[in-house]
Write a structure and sequence with these properties.
It is built from seven helices and no strands. The protein is mostly helical and about 110 residues long.
């Protein structure tokens, strides 16, 4: 189990990597609002509106890739953690009841 915990903590990305990616996406999401509003108000052709959308989407690719990288790393760590949590009861269940301290005052098992 200790090995699993070391594995989980050693491969983690910077603690704020997820927050940075989300923050970058949020900042970029605010930018095109005025442009889209102006294009809609001016009844601009669809081609102009699509060009505006393309200008909006392109800068999102870098933080989106970072967000995905962080999410994948998180998912991998959770798989390791899940395995550890599922394996933890094994030694308890295979230890004879009288050796586990079941029913003794102050014991963790009962």
């Amino acid at each position: 189990m200790a090995t699993g915990l070391r594995t989980i903590t050693s491969r983690r990305p910077a603690p704020d990597a997820f927050a940075k990616a989300v923050g970058a996406i949020a900042v970029l999401a605010e930018r095109p609002g005025a442009e889209r509003f102006d294009l809609n108000r001016a009844n601009a052709p669809v081609s102009a509106r699509l060009a505006g959308a393309a200008r909006y989407v392109e800068p999102l690719s870098a933080p989106a890739v970072e967000w995905r990288t962080v999410a994948v790393a998180f998912g991998e760590r959770m798989g390791t953690l899940d395995g550890g949590v599922r394996a933890a009861p094994g030694p308890i269940e295979t230890t004879p009841r009288d050796e586990r301290g079941v029913g003794r005052r102050g014991s963790w098992a009962g």
